[in-house]
Amino acid sequence: MKVEVHDTPLSIGEHLAERIVDGIRARGSEGRAYVLGCPGGRSPMPVYEAIGRRLKVEPINCSRLVIVMMDEYLQASGGDRLTPPPSSVHFSCRGFGEREIVGRINAAPPCRTSHSSGKLLDAGPKQSRRL
Questions:
Q1: Is the CB of residue 6 less than 8 Å from the CB of residue 14?
Q2: Burial class (CB in 10 A: 0-12, 13-18, 19+), 24
Q3: Among candidates 102, 124, 127, which has minimal Cα distance to 115?
Q4: Is residue 55 within a helix (H) or strand (E), and if so which, with residue range?
Q5: Residues 64-74, buried b or exposed e (16+ Cβ, 10 A)?
Q6: What tens digit of pLDDT does each residue of 49-59 get?
C-alpha cells in the first residue's frame, strides 16, 4: 500500500476525486457498477466538493454509480422499531448524502440519473442507497 501525504484538504480532495471519477468511468465502460462508500460529516467534504468540480469540467455518465452511506442515526419509532430520521433534519446521514453528494454529482447535466429528484433511494433493510 502506497502512503501519500497531502499538504492541504484541497490537495487530497482533488487527488481522491480524480481516482473516484476515473473509477466511475472505467466501471461504466465495462457495464458495471461503481460502489462508493461515503461517510457523512466535514472530513470528506473536500472530496465531495472536488468530485463536483471535476464533473462540471469533465462530465461523465454516473448512471452506474452506487452510493452507500456508511452511517445513519436511528430513532425509536414505537415498540422495538428503529427508523432513520427524515432526511430534512440536520443530523440525517441520508439528507447529508442527498445535499452534499448527490446534489453535487447531479449538478453536471450528463451525470443526471433517471431519478431527477436527486434523492437517495431506500434499497430496503440494509439501508443502502442508490442513485
A1: no
A2: buried
A3: 102
A4: helix 45-57
A5: bbebbbeebee
A6: 999 999 999 89
